[in-house]
UniProtKB/TrEMBL annotation:
This is Diguanylate cyclase/phosphodiesterase with PAS/PAC sensor(S). Residues 24-273 form the EAL domain. Signal peptide: none annotated. The lineage of its organism: Bacteria, Bacillati, Bacillota, Bacilli, Bacillales. The chain holds residues 513 to 785 of 785 of the full protein.
Length: 273
């Protein structure tokens, strides 16, 4: 609905800006009730190991279905949820739902795998994060090693505090993955100091694999960095066989992307098993 009702040429930029403000206000006002109204649901994107057959995990991606707005993508509403603080209760719902679902798969006898949940900055630094996660694990009965949290490099900004939080999460037994790796501006020294488990190569590097030589070098560098630091490495946004083959040739054996599977309903994941 962004593109609707744009003014004529000269006013287009101005109108787009105003339109966006209005849309954001609309999103904000509707977001307050979304959780209570049960408007969120989760989409699950399988992650594969070694080849196209072994599902090693699923990333959960939130979706918002609003009567007035239709389906709103997380790219649009997560920043607003973050600004307003709504991300804290919404994020808690995501973690609980993801853990509950993974425990149900485990109980049904499907091969054990991890469920990955994205954390935003505000969630990560929220004072009750660790307690909340411990509680959800206890409540749902999911063994902690089957929950993975995705954080981004930018969250290392308060290094001391981040180190404390990550150490506590590590003690809990959950896994930590660095999402969108390679796009942040933080120094690499935290990789050695923080207890993290995995680097997730950002899709922007994967996208141009066959054509862009420079990105190929960046990917190779990230893979060897992961190997040297004893971290797992996964590539996201894998869209072609050529990209998959390149990654395998260069020592990356975990993948996520449209080539393998799109985000799907939980029942579809069950069918995949
Ligand atoms: P992300 O964590 O980096 O997730 C990957 C995004 O790339 C997802 O978009 C996914 O649908 C998309 N994707 C997966 N494979 C491919 C591919 O092969 N090609 C392309 N072009 N895209 C692919 P989505 O679901 O729109 O999510 C966007 C971002 O919103 C996520 O990026 C994450 O940062 C955030 N997000 C999603 N769910 C949550 C959540 O529950 N909590 C928080 N805090 N953030 C979330
Ligand atoms: Mg992610
Ligand atoms: Mg990512
Ligand atoms: Mg991203």
């Amino acid at each position: 609905y962004h593109a609707k009702n744009l003014g004529k040429n000269t006013y287009q930029v101005y109108n787009t800006h105003i339109q966006k403000e209005k849309t954001n206000l609309k999103i904000e006002s509707l977001l307050y009730k979304a959780l209570k109204n049960g408007e969120f649901f989760l989409s699950y994107q399988p992650q594969f190991e070694t080849n196209e057959e072994n599902i090693s995990g699923v990333e959960v991606l939130i979706r918002w279905d609003n009567k007035e707005l239709g389906i709103v993508s997380p790219g649009e509403f997560i920043p607003i949820a973050e600004e307003t603080g709504l991300i804290v209760p919404i994020g808690e719902w995501v973690i609980r739902e993801a853990c509950r679902r993974n425990k149900a798969w485990l109980d049904a006898g499907y091969p054990a795998m991890s469920v990955s949940v994205n954390l935003s900055m505000r969630q990560f630094y929220h004072k009750e994060l660790v307690e909340m996660i411990a509680e959800i694990l206890y409540e749902t009965g999911l063994p902690p090693e089957f929950l993975e949290l995705e954080i981004t490099e930018s969250m290392a900004i308060h290094a001391e505090q981040a180190s404390v939080i990550l150490t506590e999460l590590n003690k809990l037994g959950v896994k930590i993955s660095i999402d969108d790796f390679g796009t942040g501006y933080s120094s690499l020294s935290y990789l050695k100091r923080f207890p993290i488990d995995q680097l997730k190569i950002d899709q922007s590097f994967v996208r141009d694999i066959d054509s862009n030589k420079e990105d190929n070098d960046i990917i190779r560098t990230i893979i060897s960095l992961a190997h040297n630091l004893n971290l797992e490495v996964i590539a996201e946004g894998v869209k072609t066989k050529a990209q998959l083959e390149f990654l395998k040739r260069n020592g990356c054996f975990k993948f996520q992307g449209y080539y393998l599977a799109k985000p799907m309903k939980p029942e579809e994941v069950t069918e995949l098993f």
